[in-house]
Design brief:
Blueprint (H helix, E strand, L loop, with lengths): L7 H6 L1 E2 L5 E3 L13 H8 L2 E2 L2 H10 L4
Antiparallel strand pairs: 1-2, 2-3
């Protein structure tokens, strides 16, 4: 059986934690900061976990993650 290919764009966006959850970074945190509140900017800067409903699809993209 040949090796599976990792989707490189997904590998750069997602990391797998030690317990097997998938970590991601939040969108809307690169520009237009004047219109966003400090609270919102602070929350956007922190990583988040991928929703369980999307976990299976992302796992397929990063099989060796």
């Amino acid at each position: 059986m040949p090796k599976m290919k990792t989707n490189k764009s997904a590998a750069k966006r997602f990391k797998v934690t030690a317990t097997g959850k998938i970590k991601r970074y939040k969108a809307y945190s690169s520009h237009l900061f004047l219109s966003k509140t400090s609270k919102r900017k602070r929350r956007l800067s922190k990583p988040d976990l991928v929703d369980p409903s999307d976990k299976k699809r992302i796992r397929r993209l990063i099989p060796y993650g």
